[in-house]
Predict the 3D structure of the following.
Amino acid sequence: LVSGSVPYKGTLLRAHSSHPLDPLSPAEIAVAVATVRAAGATPEVRDGMRFIEIVLNEPEKHVVALADAYFFPPFQPSLYAEAKGGPVTLKQLPPRQARLIVYNKNTNETIVWLVELTEVHAVARGGHHRGRVLSSQCVPDVQPPMDAVEYAECEATVKAFAPFKEAMKKRGIDDMELVMVDPWCVGYYGEEDSPKRRLAKPLIFCRTESGCPMENGYARPVEGIHVVVDMQHMRIIEFEDRKLIPLPPPDPLRNYTAANSRGGVDRTDLKPLQIIQPEGPSFRVKGYAVEWQKWSFRIGFTPREGLVIHCVAYDDGSRGRRSVAHRLSFVEMVVPYGDPQEPHYRKNAFDAGEDGLGKNAHSLKRGCDCLGLIKYFDAHFTNFNGGVETIENCVCLHEEDFGILWKHQDWRSGHAEVRRSRRLSASFFCTVANYEYGFFWHFYQDGKIEAEVKLTGILSLGALSPDESRKYGTVIAPGLYAPIHQHFFVARLNMAVDSKPGESCNQVVEVDVKVEKPGPGNIHNNAFYAESTLLESELKAMRDCNPLSARHWIVRNTRSVNRTGQLTGYKLVPGSNCLPLAGQEAKFLRRAAFLKHNLWVTQYDKDEIFPAGEFPNQNPRVGEGLPTWVQKDRKLEETDVVLWYIFGVTHIPRLEDWPVMPVERIGFTLMPHGFFNCSPAVDVPPSYPSADGTNKNCSSECHLQSKL
Amino acid sequence: LVSGSVPYKGTLLRAHSSHPLDPLSPAEIAVAVATVRAAGATPEVRDGMRFIEIVLNEPEKHVVALADAYFFPPFQPSLYAEAKGGPVTLKQLPPRQARLIVYNKNTNETIVWLVELTEVHAVARGGHHRGRVLSSQCVPDVQPPMDAVEYAECEATVKAFAPFKEAMKKRGIDDMELVMVDPWCVGYYGEEDSPKRRLAKPLIFCRTESGCPMENGYARPVEGIHVVVDMQHMRIIEFEDRKLIPLPPPDPLRNYTAANSRGGVDRTDLKPLQIIQPEGPSFRVKGYAVEWQKWSFRIGFTPREGLVIHCVAYDDGSRGRRSVAHRLSFVEMVVPYGDPQEPHYRKNAFDAGEDGLGKNAHSLKRGCDCLGLIKYFDAHFTNFNGGVETIENCVCLHEEDFGILWKHQDWRSGHAEVRRSRRLSASFFCTVANYEYGFFWHFYQDGKIEAEVKLTGILSLGALSPDESRKYGTVIAPGLYAPIHQHFFVARLNMAVDSKPGESCNQVVEVDVKVEKPGPGNIHNNAFYAESTLLESELKAMRDCNPLSARHWIVRNTRSVNRTGQLTGYKLVPGSNCLPLAGQEAKFLRRAAFLKHNLWVTQYDKDEIFPAGEFPNQNPRVGEGLPTWVQKDRKLEETDVVLWYIFGVTHIPRLEDWPVMPVERIGFTLMPHGFFNCSPAVDVPPSYPSADGTNKNCSSECHLQSKL
Ligand SMILES: [Co+2]
Ligand SMILES: [Co+2]
């Protein structure tokens, strides 16, 4: 196990090898790839193998329960499933498994491999695994996600294509170094997009100055050139110079670094601000396990989703370590554009399923991306050719002061009690072409979990004639146009409220606040009340937000009660949200039918992870994934539930979003609702007042004052 | 001028006396009160005077323009109104005026006084003012807000009332020290609530342990006792022991300090977190004027509103100091409860108009309420008897790191540009009885202004029989019940987008995103677009939120354009919001009819500040204030506009909100929309990466990495 040294004092965990939920180590990845390679039937098959994704094949939940008993001694016996046959030890854990998606470039086949990894030597002796193929299955009629290597090859292919060079010359461009080719997946609009071929439809841009790699080339979209690339054979199969739209003039405001041609000067009056934790962070990390302020969870990471949060629990004193969620992650996102014209109507990136949020994650930098005392986790992948690659400092874990947690000042005595809020954030950032997304999970001392997405990066632009404007977007600069679009995110929440791993005693109720009818019981007409409706089965659990009724959803345990006798629960509180503004018959909604509702609830099924199905790229099947699964209409009255919360923002571009969009935030909250008997934040200690702007925890009351 | 010494280097402002918008100084308050007292016609009148509120009578806008020219030399000449007759000097400013609301306890009259304050000596020689009454006007048929002194007297009166003591004895309470009487305004439910009498209807609570003042007494509501107090004569005019509901048992979880009977132990594993600004803050303060990161504004404060933000402008390079808003504040809030029974149906506090957000503000403590380098402002008031009172450290001004401001990582080179966001926050906190509210105005480097309300404090409870539950709320503990309620806030935004003070060239458009109809121009059915509708007049400008259409409102200047030729604007982006869930005919909506829409727009009128009218307490008139003003249906096509944004949250109490509710946040954003030609955050300098979690600004690119 390569990752994370552990500089924190005191750990609850025993020295150990991998936990069953730990992401695959580089050694495991290497062995798995070698095992698959060796299993290729012919040299041609082996030669054609391209490694799109490799992930830990997550174990059955009872294995997690077993492992927790081993790794987490304070875990309450009542909270994990019983182990049959004597004491629970590591030896009882089954071997780990890797799951690989391999694209065969020679045969255009997509094959899913399952490899068992047996630990031959202990980690202490260098760690060594042996792999064994458990299964390999060819998945017909799909295209797996695109890889960065293919994108680079595609760009080179287009730039070397003589008719393309000719078309650029017609537009005044001789220097092909200036040209940027951003391949986009084609989606599925008809038989010509069938996964029988692996296709990309690149967008073309062109910088203005040679030798200036940080010039913002997205400021000069090249319009009118139709290119379709066969990504399997890496050759251009359609090319047409359809319309000679002049390149927009260089926008003097296109750049975003002072060093580059912006020519401006950065502001100089920003004084440094430091976050100092002289006694270290309040969290403890052992391997991928995190403990902080009564919270515990595990960090996971996959090429598709990026950060995964496993096994979220809260230490509730005499009630022990109480489970909240089994697995939390972002499993898909879709960015549909509202312009019906070429090339914009094709823009509706499935950034997880067509590209990979985790594969495109950043290596973060302390002091720039993150402030305070940071624990970083690395992420390990295969590259396209099967080599092991590591993104260092990929997941950031750190604490933040978050303002006032609670306060009350007694009006009779003037005495104030105030507590500051500390939160723990686990996050990563990724780039998909021009856009950036940051995904954050914040844990709070009052039992809240907040999921937050930060949107930034560069707008996807089109070129206009100098005096043209267009109904479907905003003119950003002369000849530059940003079409309107939406960003949708799908959070998959396998909740486990007061549930042992593998138990099935959660349900979901929808709560709406209703106006009481007038009558003798309501003579002042002021009455309203909350009404709960059980979501009984999957087809009844396709729901939309309704701010006017304060609608939210509570996941509750059917067998666990709080001190008032109400079922213990966690509620999903929507943030701002919307639904697709495209027509109901929009072509991209064939693949993204899950966008038609904000909430879906399903019975847990290990294989139901991706709401558009595992392979949305060029997917010809209508409503694959979530909309199909719920047709089973499984019962939800008492089960292991998965909530799919889908939230979006409608982005009408502003001039101020250019050249880089300031961060927009969107998200939702999981809040305890009768889970605890009172506020779990009541025992957060007060802080000292201080003259120097610092704060210290103390047990006496605040009584000093000072003033600048 | 007493407030704020100025420890920051470099100021743009000349040494000066009061700015015309500075809050009244203690000296001015004392002179104004003395002037009014002396003007009382008879000893009886003078004796009866109680001073409810005193505020600066804000000057006409052309005076502000004059003053800015004097106080703010870099202010662009083109942005202020022309001064007649030669150079602008302080001598040309008219004398300041105080406006007082005086309640005559002998006659039950409410009188508004206007007093002119002439500076006799310069501040440098000790400052001395002379007052002169400009007008005094008796306002018929109103009751001014309640005062803390009256609340204390009311409590004492009730506790001394023999039948009340008898009733408490019946409930097992002999020790009147334990009893808490929280007077609530009666509202207006019929002729018996008429302002001919000054009334309160107290809620009764009872602690369990003597000598324990920090015990949370709100945990034992005393039900069944009907009391109405004549607050003018401070006597009980109605008393009835209606129903002997047993006192709820002492709730073992009622307390929130470890020192008190909670008996618990605070958590000990929270390590200190310090925010250090070794070179000082990035803001500069002179008197009440603030400059920070191209922003400038002035701090104001009133007893009713608390913090007021005046004269918000942004320094936009060659375009000079561009105005954004003239005056921003919270002018009212209403908290209607959803239980139709006694005493809850009467609970619908107008915390600004019945009590005063500013009057009830906290004195803040560095390190507890606020972290970092703080500049505090004091607030000065009269007390009930006309004495000058000061809340020290009442308004907090400080900077915060706010995560990533913008980022882009080039996928070809791997080069990342990232900037951190710094924000400046001006805020205050107040207590109204059991609840706490914090009001925050955040200024960002990307031109955004965010208004945020933080809700915390103690739930308003009722008692139930041990096994009773009630449709209209949540059982919080055995015998304890928290009714459902809503919190509504009214922000009054006198915008001035690219407008000189007093100019009238703003308008408001509503933007909705619409689905395009299918057709030959939309063959893939993906199209949608933003549609703008001018709000032409006041009756057409009563609008509600609509998240499904991404509805927002843009205040734009009718004569100023950005580089694409679009009108410059600022948009109001709603946060989560709702409307009243009471019936349309609810009694409290007589006084709070402005809650029926989320947005109202009016032509600026200096006298239209409070949406329920100036005196909502016991107000018998239906729809006074905003709903009445808009009946004039004034034109809004090109004028000086005031936006009234009304936002609320529906609060279904949770067990976790007890004994003190963890902070909930709600608010909205003002965002530049085509106001700038590109992102104003593009020139924020990058930060150094660092090994110790600090960050420093730098001009070179990030290239170091380190790891825990
Ligand atoms: Co966008
Ligand atoms: Co509330």
Observations:
- Chain A has eight helices and 35 strands.
- The radius of gyration of chain A is 27 Å.
- The longest strand of chain A covers residues 388-409.
